[in-house]
Amino acid sequence: MSALFPILPFADDETPLSWAARQAAFHTCGRALAFLTDLGIPLVDLARGDEAAVLRLCERAGHDPAAVLRNTISAVGGRRYRLRGLEFAAEFTTGPVTRICPACLDDDLTGARLPGAALRHRLIWKLAPVRTCPVHGTALRDLRLGKWDDIAHELQAMTSLIDNERGVPGRARVVSPLQDYAVARLEGCPGPAWLDGQDIDQAVRATEMLGALEAFGPKLKASDMSEDMWDAAGRAGWPIVSEGGAAIREYLMTRVTASRGKRAAPRAAFGMLHAWLSGSRLSKKPGPIRDMLRDVILETTLLSKGHMLLGKPVTDPHLCSVASIAKAEGLDARTLRNVLQVAGLLSPAEAEQGSNRLVIDYTVARDLIDIVKHAVPVTRLPDLLGASRPLVAILIELGKLHRVLDQRALESKVGKAVDGRGVKSILRFLKIKFPTINETPEGFVNLSKSAEISRSRLKAILELIFLGHLKKVYRVSGAHGFAAVVVDPEEIKALLVSPPPGLSDDSYFLMD
Question: Which Pfam families is this protein grouped with (predicted)?
Answer without folding.
Answer: TniQ (PF06527)
